[in-house]
């Protein structure tokens, strides 16, 4: 019996795996051509665990999250693969079927609290509406729950806040409100899509700590989407690194940081500020642009920007392969920290081409201008 079959024989209550995503792809039909925004993503998420999804802007993080949640619809969206929630396939679910899943089973906190809150509706109503719809509670009960929720997310004088509008709150307080709405119906998975990028640096850590705390208390699973490897380093159990719609590296967090294999992951790591760096240290932004998703390059998607690049990388697409450690996968012919990788990097350094591939040097983007 395979692990998956054994799992199917467990009752839903016992099942450790909450979400199973297999070979999920999401393509948009556009006037310019087919945009392959998410390409063949596979992972599982167990109850109470945190998965970090990391990558630069445009790598497919939001499309992946929204595709799993069934929030992308219309005839221009093509989804293939499988998304199982508690063992049930939900990829073919209609919006009506998904509406029983949203809020109560899976919910989402977005990047900008201002766009997810209704500016002309009082905060109290925005929280209680969802409670009343999903949990069928009366107004008094919903108000009481809303006050308790606001309190639990650290909003002072919650009774008073119920009657206020979003613009009366600071950015950090607004994001606390959106988190309380996302938590209102006790979801088993919370998708947090760059939940702090619109906030001040000092508030960012508070919001991430709040998410951690709520997650632990509720034994909720979380998918934390960010462009910052530093954010998921201490908060995620497992990390998926995306590039050009594909998973390029995937591993338990400690394995990833102990033995990362993908030059792109290494480049991302070099691009985050560290506390021990003097302020104004120039960070290594990754030169060049992400790949074209309509007509991707013939070889590795990252080849044009890679310090390790070799002729093979331009011709052949590297498959996702397993590393020595369990659960660690990567997509590279010249992995970081291996004899082949070291030789490739040394050769490029000697040739003076290791900063960026020569082909992209003249077309680098704003990072250098
Ligand atoms: N509705 C759509 N139609 C066509 N292309 C789309 C659509 N939505 C997203 N895309 C494209 O899919 C790719 C992935 O976008 P996505 O928003 O998932 O990136 P991201 O990793 O979340 O980036 P960011 O960090 O900026 O939020 C981008 O190239 C984007 O332009
Ligand atoms: Mg996004």
UniProtKB/TrEMBL annotation:
One Pfam family in the UniProt entry: oligo_HPY
Membrane topology: Peripheral membrane protein
GO molecular function: ATP binding; ATP hydrolysis activity
Gene Ontology biological process terms, A to Z: peptide transport
InterPro entries, A to Z: AAA+_ATPase, ABC_Ni/Peptide_Import, ABC_transporter-like_ATP-bd, ABC_transporter-like_CS, Oligopep_ABC_C, P-loop_NTPase
Cell membrane in keyword set: yes
Ranges where the ABC transporter domain occurs: 19-269
Keyword Membrane annotated: yes
Keywords tagged on the record: ATP-binding, Cell membrane, Membrane, Nucleotide-binding, Transport
Annotated localization: Cell membrane
One Gene Ontology cellular component: plasma membrane
Entries under PANTHER family matching the protein: DIPEPTIDE TRANSPORT ATP-BINDING PROTEIN DPPD, OLIGOPEPTIDE TRANSPORT ATP-BINDING PROTEIN APPD
Entry-linked NCBIfam families: oligo_HPY
Protein name as catalogued: Unannotated protein
Species this protein is from: freshwater metagenome
